[in-house]
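Record 1 of the preview.
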Amino acid sequence: MARLNNRPTNGLIPTTGEAFPNGVLLDLIRDEETKEIGLLAWDKGETRIGGQLEYAGKTYVPAAVDPTVLSALQLPTRSSPSGTTTSDLFCSIYTELARLTGLPDPILAQVICFIFTTWLVDRLPIAPFLWIVAPESADGEALLQLLALFCRRSLLLTADSIAGLWTLPMNLRPTLLLDAAELTAPMQKFLHASNHKGIYFARRGQTLNFCCAKAVSSLESLRDPGLANLALQVTLPPNRPQRSVLTQEESQKIAERYQADLLWYRLRNYGQIRILDSDLEGLPAAKQSLARSFVACILDNEKLRSVVLPLLCEQDREGEVELSSGLEAVILRALLSCCHEGDRSTLRVAELAEITNAMLRRRGERVQISPETVGWKLRSLRLRTESVANGGKGLWMLNDVRGRIHRLALEYRVPSDPQGAQQGCPFCPPVVAAKSTGGEGDDDSELLCVL
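->
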């Protein structure tokens, strides 16, 4: 990259990137030698690089970025006009990640899809969101460190202090890579806030948009249905063979190559993104938007797209099984049963814990949960407990509470209670015949055949 020619910025227009109507694009870039931030202009395959660039009589300069953020931010040093196809680039990244991680094909395919979407996030209806379930022996942090080398404008952060995330310069549209042991309430709030474009939040006299791509590594699965429908969730296999740790020089070499290739991919395909409007049978509406976004970024190779989409659908089916078998689902099943006790007006938390534990014992589970745990789970489900007639905390079983319990049961894929249907419960959904999800034992090696 040429040395940047920095000049005084008085009267100039700060930017983190521009897309002009005639197809000209501006993007941020970093000088290989000085590490200073500059701009790259792309116009029909031709590129120019500088500390400031003129377009239509206006002069643009890189927006000011805090030095500590800038030092942690991954930026390309050039674009690589290699002319490679989507399949070539996908295959190259697949080979690199397979060598470095040893992950199975389906997980690699989904992770690579996420990488591609980060480079075109501003062209997608929802922000790409990858949730990585990483048992302690699986080392999810190592995968995040690798993702930082490939994703656009990646920032690798710990999620211990969520308050700090609200202060990040989101005008950069970074890809946040977060290492979080568990999904706390503040984390849940931030993740909800950062999924959709065009939604602004008022903070300290400003309106802010937090929409950005993000990958989160956690010990536990996503249990919030709202977030689960907006996320691509992968589970790392435990006790994988440990790969050698990359040196700083090796990491830098990988980042320089693929940041350049993927920047060129973004520039070349920015105007070609088309979101499919066909119905993706079997997926919830929110998950359909996610799948369309992921598939839209796999350009000029229909066969590769046709292999990737079933992997996304299979991931959703696995997520449904986890959602319906978790503790929240068991508690909701107990709540449904109580809803259909016609003369019940209240339900104490301690009583709900007893019913839930009885259900767990019938499932062969050894764990027994306390009323305190049930209380916290009710809070996470947004079911508010109050003082009830027989002492202690509990729920008043009014119609609005019963209705909410039924809606939550649907979200968590809890089967309907037959007793409710027999009683003509107004909140129970109509019974529909189960649809076959197709044959089992799909051949994962099809991905390798395409590549």
